[in-house]
Amino acid sequence: DAKTTQPTSMDCAEGRAANLPCNHSTISGNEYVYWYRQIHSQGPQYIIHGLKNNETNEMASLIITEDRKSSTLILPHATLRDTAVYYCIVRVAGGTSYGKLTFGQGTILTVHP
Amino acid sequence: DSGVTQTPKHLITATGQRVTLRCSPRSGDLSVYWYQQSLDQGLQFLIQYYNGEERAKGNILERFSAQQFPDLHSELNLSSLELGDSALYFCASSPSPGHFEQYFGPGTRLTVT
Lengths: 113, 113
Fold this sequence. Notes:
heterodimer, A: mainly beta, five-stranded mixed beta sheet, 9 strands, B: mainly beta, seven-stranded mixed beta sheet, four-stranded antiparallel beta sheet, globular
């Protein structure tokens, strides 16, 4: 699985958009970008994933650059409950993939009132 | 609530002892994963089972073993415990190995004294 690089920490004001970047310059053509978050020692929670098109769901949007070497997770209206560690993960999905998730250090997002 | 249950929530034991952590996956999920989260190593994949068979191994020590039973619940056995084994142990499940989302349980916090 490709390695990812994320900033160690970021701050965001409540109600504003939180934009979390991730670099994955060695990503392969069949690897997806996943985002999970972990709120204070709870089990990690899936947020969103994508291959090359931008994706949006009820939690967030995922913007992947055209060369797929980086991506940005966008929380459109951050709340205090979004304070968590956010993990960007790259892995093959589907078919015969093993399925394991390789977590890096993640980005600690702190949302301020 | 992810639908994945783990018992016990907390476990305190002494060095050299053996413990068993239990995981019940979401109804219908055939794949189970174990992860370890320690302060110095972060979240690490240990092992994966699919429909009762071992599918993939990660950084799992030889003192650790796991199995998945016919009813699909899984157990992680940790023996000859050392202080460094103190960590949060998470179980996750998914319908299949390559499924895009893994559902994490609340974790078992193991403290070795």
